[in-house]
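Folding follows sequence. Below is one example:
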Amino acid sequence: MANAQKKSKNNSITGVGTGGKRIRNIREKVDAEKVYTLQEAISLVKEVSTLKFDETIELALRLGIDPRHSDQNVRGVVSMPHGVGKTAKVAVFARDDKAEEAKKAGADIVGAEDLVEEILQGNINFDKAIATPDMMSVVSKAAKTLGPKGLMPNPKLGTVTKDIAEAVKNAKSGQVEFRAEKNGIIHAGLGKVSFGDKELIENINAFVGAIEKAKPSSLKGIYMTKASVSSTMGPGVTVDVSTLTA
């Protein structure tokens, strides 16, 4: 699924640059025309990841949907059994008791109108945003800024809630949000190269299971059509969709 990656550098072996021992090694080991099992793909991606930082393992799925139709939108959130190797920085829009609850739960940033003003000034120093229902009229003032970045709180994703402590806990523990892009592709980082193969596969299985549950009832035909696994700076390795266990 080389052409289904979100970032062009992951689209193919040629996407990682030219020349050098690392590139020759990748060309020798990764067959761009071959379809690998998930286990084979994970092992191969880790084998050719030789950079000094701990790269993220990414999964790209092409779905047989047409996101232009409202009844074929695929969106949701799922907790990774082994986390994603990074603790999210969480902002909470809340007041009074709920603001205190957020702070005690470990929220990194807590505010109301003041936080919206910071956002409108371009200061977005968080990975996830949560809000109490009564704060949404305030948060909506920053919707045009938060929306395109995928940071707008949404009740369907559990980020607009009265249970702030639980939402903060979930956000910190490795939740992954997913949403099909206009071309029907879902792309997400699901772990690190330093993770064991078993941990990565279990994370991917959890992610695929959530996407399976989000399958539109109106969809006719094949749902998951193509898949690939890559590291942050590595090539996309095509995966046999039938080896993805929901």
Summary: The domain at 90-173 is CATH 3.40.50.790 (Rossmann fold).
